[in-house]
Amino acid sequence: MKSSLYLHLVILSFHLLLLLHFTINKVRALDTNNNTDRQALLSFRLQISDPQNLLSGWTNHISTSHCTWFGVSCTTDHNHRVNSIHLPGLGLSGTLSPHLSNLSSLQKLNLSRNNFYGQIPIELGRLFLLTHFILAENSITGAIPASLSQCQNLRVISLGFNKLTGHLPPELGALPRLQVLDASGNNLTGVVPPTFGNLSALTVLSLDSNNLSGPPRRQSRQPPPPTSAPTPPCKAPLCPAPPPR
Ligand SMILES: *[C@@H]1O[C@H](CO)[C@@H](O)[C@H](O)[C@H]1NC(C)=O
Ligand SMILES: *[C@@H]1O[C@H](CO)[C@@H](O)[C@H](O)[C@H]1NC(C)=O
Ligand SMILES: *[C@@H]1O[C@H](CO)[C@@H](O)[C@H](O)[C@H]1NC(C)=O
Ligand SMILES: *[C@@H]1O[C@H](CO)[C@@H](O)[C@H](O)[C@H]1NC(C)=O
Ligand SMILES: *[C@@H]1O[C@H](CO)[C@@H](O)[C@H](O)[C@H]1NC(C)=O
Ligand SMILES: *[C@@H]1O[C@H](CO)[C@@H](O)[C@H](O)[C@H]1NC(C)=O
């Protein structure tokens, strides 16, 4: 009798320990995700100046969720992971933090028309869900990192009008979903890599105003414009009167 009670106690405490273990792990996992995103955003913020003070809400104040920060969007599921940073045309200036690579759910990064300078961190190749990488019209220098070829979901790479140098990485030819590659208005040299012939989803390749040479040079392989102008959408009271017959 006494030993059976003892056994029960042992089993009970074992179960309690197990429960505690899973609870702690679960809390830690959620915490890490949330906290990693938050820390990554704060690291990104630290390296930029914001003349219009639009990012003043980006602080580590405990009561504000980073999902409510200006320009930040999160997934709607219970994990609340950052999936978009949309900060174009705000006069932001600074370098791109490699900590952005910790935003493992990031799909869209739009920092176009600012004054970002310095290089594209090779670590950004860890953003496996990234679909839109938009840095057009900044002052980014250095080469386009070949590591971007690891972002296998990329659909749009927009790097036009920066100060990029070096060669187009042949590895980018292995991006199965790439539809738009715009690197016009930079100082790229060398040839367009033959691997780009494998970009079967590509509809726009814009590489003009560089120092690229030699074939194959396919520019703006855009679908031809429709023969008749598309009818613009209109709401009933705004529609123009039909022509008299
Ligand atoms: C962190 O995640 C938890 C649960 O997934 C969520 O309830 C909470 O709002 C998140 N925190 C932030 C700051 O997004
Ligand atoms: C975040 O990214 C930086 C730069 O790549 C890295 O050093 C750091 O270990 C990462 N932190 C986490 C929590 O993943
Ligand atoms: C990025 O932002 C610019 C400026 O608002 C906008 O024109 C462009 O369509 C955006 N690109 C994407 C892919 O969201
Ligand atoms: C390209 O390089 C030349 C010579 O170094 C420089 O004068 C020019 O401003 C550069 N262009 C761009 C777009 O960076
Ligand atoms: C192309 O390269 C030459 C020298 O290699 C340089 O003088 C020229 O400025 C470059 N052109 C552009 C558009 O950057
Ligand atoms: C294109 O892809 C095929 C199949 O993955 C590969 O065998 C070939 O080497 C690639 N071509 C180039 C030019 O990279």
Describe this entry's structure for a reader.
The protein is α/β, with parallel strands linked by helices and 245 residues long. It has a single domain, classed as Ribonuclease Inhibitor (Leucine-rich repeat, LRR (right-handed beta-alpha superhelix), Alpha-Beta Horseshoe), CATH 3.80.10. Helix content is 18%, strand content 15%. The protein has 1 helix and 13 strands. The protein is globular, with a radius of gyration of 25 Å. One 2-acetamido-2-deoxy-beta-D-glucopyranose (NAG) is lined by residues 30, 34, 65-67, 78-80.
Q: Would you summarize the structure shown here?
A:
By secondary structure, the chain is an alpha/beta fold.
Helical content, roughly?
Answer: 10-25%
**Strand count:** 13
Oligomer: single chain
Helix and strand succession?
Answer: HEEEEEEEEEEEEE
The CATH class designation is Alpha Beta
Global Rg: 25 Å
Set down the secondary structure blueprint:
Layout: H1 2-46, E1 48-49, E2 72-74, E3 82-86, E4 93-94, E5 108-110, E6 115-118, E7 132-134, E8 139-140, E9 156-158, E10 180-182, E11 189-190, E12 204-206, E13 211-212
Parallel strand pairs: 3-5, 4-6, 5-7, 6-8, 7-9, 9-10, 10-12, 11-13
Antiparallel strand pairs: 1-4, 2-3
Tag the structure with descriptive keywords.
7-stranded mixed β-sheet, binds 2-acetamido-2-deoxy-beta-D-glucopyranose, single chain, 245 residues, alpha/beta, 1 helix, 13 strands, 4-stranded mixed β-sheet
